[in-house]
Amino acid sequence: MTGRLSGAMMAAFLASSAIPAAAETPDRERIAGTVEAQHDANVAALRDWIALPTIAAERLNTPAGAEYMQQLALDAGFQQAKIIPTDGVPAVFATLDAGADTTLGLYFMYDVKQFDPAEWNSPPLEGRLVEREGEGLAMVGRGAVNQKGPETAFLAAIKAIQASGRKLPVNLVLVAEGEEEVASTHFDQVVAVPEVRDALAKSIGVFIPSAAQGEDGSATITLGAKGAVEFQLVVGGETSDKYPQTDIHSSNHARIENPAWRLVKALDTLVADDGHTPAIDGWFENVRPLTERQKMLIAQNAELNPEVQEKERLGVGRWIDDEPYVTSLERFYSQPTVNIQGLNAGYTGQGGKTVLPGRAEAKLEFRLVPAMTKDEAVSKLKAHLAKRGFDDVQVTVSGGYGPNETEEDSTLIRAQKALFEKDGVPYSIIPRNAGSWPGVIFNGPPLNLPASQFGLSRGGGAHAPNEWFLIESSDPAVNGFDEAVMAYVDYLYAVAEEAGRSD
């Protein structure tokens, strides 16, 4: 590990994380040559996948997205790939038996967030290559970094190993869902299928490909992620006869209640007067505080990711309550949130329209931390509203799951540490990702498996306009596409080696 931490933090870090270095990947030079030869085909594959967006919220390209994912798995060398029906968007289950002693689980999402082409500098489904100042050539498109870029790089890695005449060092079990962007509404149904559950149970853990490399080339290891619950609050003619069935003339507000005001009043009870601290009754009852080790990891992460860069990336000038940077990071990773994603009621066009809305809707999300659960959060929300008489506020939960956690000494995490230390990649560890993915499905019963993220690649703009994934890097310390592919190659061998040590 190269020196970016203070001396005291470096000593503490090494004392707590020293493990044997990863061995060299067999035939690495030959595999790297294969990756280079396949570069154009791999970039084209990413572009083609971006051109087919599956958007669960709009039921767009279902089941076409699942069929495409199924074919991607087969093309990558999985011996079998099946479409798994759910009550919503179908999933894909695939296995690759390499005759190895170790089996690794793999989680993909093939769906993407919605997009408005008017907000983009290039068409969101084109996969255009754009020069990013100071970084290199990047592909811009919806899903480029979340998650089609990292996933394409992983598929390219297993293709290259096989094309180079070698068997994979691990067997693979893949589950790919098409509803991650609506909080994995039916993913539990997929893992409940006996064939899927039994295959995953043979694995040492499950990981999701990601882009976890910073602008300076440093990497981040995450030990979990917050949970997420997406839901809507609706007030209007459909929830009570106090409100009109449609928009009516605004003069009627003298005698008819406005559902928009009622919704605002309900929303105001969900947070404290500061506008951000959750105020739902019993909300913090099961929130587990950060340990001293976790606080130390957060402080180390702050040294590798300077505050000025973080503020610039987010487009803000200060944190809540003007808190110090490390304090804001502790809040970021440890506090559950009640967030309003959007509000809609009445007329929002140019000028006024003098209407009283017939319906008001708020789209919200919870982010949950250990040891909260989805069911607990939803039940507390409903009880909170009922206690205050908001029986006319309809709560509709569209999806969600709890937080996930993986121990620092698990095989998946040890393999990352060994790989980064062997290659001299500076890295930090964070207790959990403040974003979410449904790793709890693997962490929890009946599987009780480690679940983590890994990817030594770079990108940005997830859920936002001009989402991008780096293809050719102008900085030798930062990976372009081919280097990201080789990082997955190395990781598979590092996982196999660490699993062997555990045996």
Q: What fraction strand?
A: 15-25%
The CATH architecture of the largest domain: 3-Layer(aba) Sandwich
| Classification by helices and strands | alpha/beta
Taking pLDDT < 50 over at least 5 consecutive residues as the criterion, the unreliable ranges are 1-17
Summarize the structure.
This protein has 503 residues and is of the alpha/beta class.
Describe the protein.
By secondary structure, the protein is α/β, with parallel strands linked by helices. The chain folds into 2 domains: 28-224 and 405-501, Aminopeptidase, CATH 3.40.630.10; 227-287 and 335-401, Alpha-Beta Plaits (2-Layer Sandwich), CATH 3.30.70. The chain is 34% helix and 22% strand. It has 15 helices and 20 strands. The protein has helices at residues 7-17, 28-37, 39-50, 64-75, 144-163, 187-191, 194-201, 259-268, 292-304, 307-314, 325-334, 374-387, 411-423, 440-443, 481-502; strands spanning 80-84, 91-96, 103-109, 128-132, 136-140, 171-177, 206-209, 219-222, 224-236, 248-249, 337-345, 355-356, 359-368, 394-401, 404-405, 427-430, 433-436, 451-454, 459-460, 468-473. The strands form 5 sheets. It has a 6-stranded mixed sheet with strand order 1-2-6-3-7-18, sandwiched between helices. Strands 9, 11, 13, 14, 15 and 17 form a 6-stranded mixed sheet that branches. Helix 9 (292-304) crosses helix 11 (325-334). Residues 1-17 have low confidence and may be disordered. It holds the Pfam family Peptidase_M20. Residues 246-389 form the Peptidase M20 dimerisation domain. This is M20/M25/M40 family metallo-hydrolase.
